[in-house]
């Protein structure tokens, strides 16, 4: 059972203080425990630090690894930048979407997988490339991508 977002922020404030420099640490703690940043946590952090909610949202929008939506147990990030697109990332995306029955940007109804596209992940010479929970997979084929996705618990 996960903790209440406000309790997580309160514990984070005890650890890191309530200065602006604590914002990232508070967000990181909430994200670690809940897997995303709910609006309740945003309001609690803004109140703890004494800034507007908008300021917390602007920090969130800068860092793509924070999400304000609940996410799946596995995060799949397929590179959608030019080198990988030329190497066939479109076919990989189609195969994964078909395998999961969702589109990029969505989470499976059973919370098993969140599928995202991302800009370059630094594996351009080995595309198409994706990260699955931060583990890189390179030179993907549609079949290989399906196999990896099917193996996620
Ligand atoms: S273009 Fe895909 S990893 Fe760089």
Topology, pairings included?
Blueprint: H1 5-16, H2 23-34, H3 39-49, H4 53-62, E1 74-79, H5 82-86, H6 89-100, E2 113-118, E3 130-132, E4 135-137, H7 142-150
Parallel strand pairs: 1-2
Antiparallel strand pairs: 1-3, 3-4
FE2/S2 (inorganic) cluster binds next to helix 5.
Overview of the structural elements:
- The chain folds into two domains: 5-62, Arc Repressor Mutant, subunit A; 74-150, Glutaredoxin.
- Helices cover 46% and strands 12% of the residues.
- It has seven helices and four strands.
- Helix 1 runs parallel beside helix 3 (39-49) and helix 6 packs parallel to helix 7.
- The chain has a four-stranded mixed β-sheet with strand order 2-1-3-4, covered by helices on one side.
- The protein binds FE2/S2 (inorganic) cluster.
- The site of FE2/S2 (inorganic) cluster has 11 residues, from helix 5.
Structural class: alpha+beta
Between the first and last Cα atoms, what is the distance in angstroms? 19 Å
Q: Whole-number average pLDDT?
A: 94
Low-confidence stretches: none
The structural domain count equals 2
| Strand percent estimate | 5-15%
Which topology of the largest domain does CATH recognise?
A: Glutaredoxin
Q: CATH homologous superfamily of the largest domain?
A: Glutaredoxin
Bound molecules: FE2/S2 (inorganic) cluster
Number of helices: 7
Largest sheet, in brief, is:
4 strands, mixed
Rounded Rg: 18 Å
CATH architecture of the largest domain: 3-Layer(aba) Sandwich
Query: Roughly what percent helix?
Result: 40-55%
What would the principal axes of the Cα set say about the shape? elongated
Give the helices and strands as they follow along the chain. Answer: HHHHEHHEEEH
Strand order of the largest sheet: 2-1-3-4
* Top CATH class of the largest domain: Alpha Beta
